[in-house]
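task queued by scheduler; priority normal; single chain, no ligands, no partner chains; default sampling; output format set to C-alpha cells
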Amino acid sequence: MKEIVFFDLDGTLIDSSRGIYMSINYALEKMDWPTLTEEQLRTFIGPPLLDSFKKIGMTNETAELGVKYYRELYAQKGMHEVHVYDGISDTLAALHQTKTLYLATSKPEKFAKEIIENLGFSNYFSGIYGADLEGKRSAKSDVLAYALTETNAVKEEAVMIGDRQHDMLGAKNNGLTSIGVLYGFGDREELEIAGADAIIQHPRELLPLLDKEF
C-alpha cells in the first residue's frame, strides 16, 4: 500500500501541448530556426527543455537562448493553455482523502505552482517540487531527489506517477515504485522499457491500485 504519491504534471495531470508548442515555435521563430514537425514538438514534453533544444541540433549556448525565448511567451500566455485530463479532478479529490500528494515536475517550480493554483488544485498537494530556473535541477531524477529530501518521504511508501520514460527512470534512480499512464505523451513500449511497475489507461485506475502491494 502506497501512502505517498508524487505526480508528474505535463501529460499526467494536464494536456499542456498547446501552450508548449506555441512557446517552442515562438522561440524558433525568434532564432530563425527551421520549423519542427508535430512529432518533433511532442518530444519536448517530459525531458528538460534545454536537453530538447540540444537534441534538435542546437549548441548549449544556442539552446540556452532558446529556453530564454521560450519562457518569454510561456510566462505570458503558454502556461495558461492547458486542459485537465478527464477523471483527474475526481481522482485527486478522492486520493487526497487518504494519501499524501506531491507534485514532482521538470517544469520550473515557479510555473508549476502557478498552474496548480490556477486550476484550483492547490489544496490537494502538500508540496510542489520542480526544476529551478538556472538549470541546475531539471532532470526528473534530480527533481525527485530534491522532493524526497524536502518531504522526508519514506521511499518504501512512495510512488511516482508519470507518462514518460523520464518519470519511470527518475523513480527507479530514487528507489521509488513507478506507475505509467497511457493517456499522456508516452506509450506502453516506452514505459515498459523504462521499467514501469504498473501501467494504467485512466486516472480512476489509481484508486484501487495504490491500495495494493507492489
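post-processing summary
- The CA atoms of residues 169 and 194 lie 6 Å apart.
- The radius of gyration is 16 Å.
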